């Protein structure tokens, strides 16, 4: 049985990916540091579901712990690594920059080193649409220049892509970076806008609408993200023949819904699903935020025959149903 290591397995995407792979018959090793960036009880609830699978092992580990990470690789026959562990959040990176350096830079190089020394077949890792910064050209393409990040979070994700390319080039490690676009869905992150909106609307609290609701986001439902990740995992990169600047076994893909939605329209969709109208406070755009994200997914579709397509109405209905059941609200 093939063994997949998933870092950040108690996180939003890590949980859903672990569950999918376990159901597909893989053996999954999950690691997570269970930090308190958001409600640890939600992470624990995800973990308890995963522990019900006989082919799941969990290790409480931090990526910064280089020796423990190396020992984990040494003691387990891991074939593929999906690195989803990271300090997330654009706005939080303004408050606690060192958390991003520790997890997203030091932690990532520890994973790269472990892959280098243990003959890993494929490293798939999370990047982010935030690397595009305030790029004006849309939709965003992986061929675009991304040298102008507007948050430290974005800078660390761009750095991950550069680090991965270096290891692919030097050590022939097949790596694939995935630029996720505004992922939402069941068991989601409580720091995300749609989660905060839902919570506050149900509690009768005012919601903050930044950029006066005029931002656009390529909201991507979690099931689409997972389908894309699973397909990419199975396609191990080979040395490039179409890139004159690199012959490394290295790929980058966008995973987004390819259909940006205005923030105010997204809020309206949540209101309809809840059957409640929100009281809104309209505010200017926040530092580090960008006015639009919009994924060009042509490369992803050409490579793996899939692109996200779940409409926000369906995705939000699924989230709201889960939220009411989970929080008994």
Overall description:
- This protein starts with a strand and ends with a helix.
- It has 11 helices and 13 strands.
- α1 (12-23) links the parallel β1 and β2 (27-32).
- The chain is globular, with a radius of gyration of 19 Å.
- It is an alpha/beta fold.
- The mean pLDDT is 95.
- α1 (12-23) packs across α8, α3 runs parallel beside α5 (97-117) and α5 (97-117) runs parallel beside α6.
- A 7-stranded parallel beta sheet has the order 3-2-1-4-5-6-11, with helices on both faces. The chain has a two-stranded parallel ribbon with strand order 7-10. A two-stranded parallel ribbon has the order 8-13.
- The chain has a single domain, classed as NAD(P)-binding Rossmann-like Domain (Rossmann fold), CATH 3.40.50.
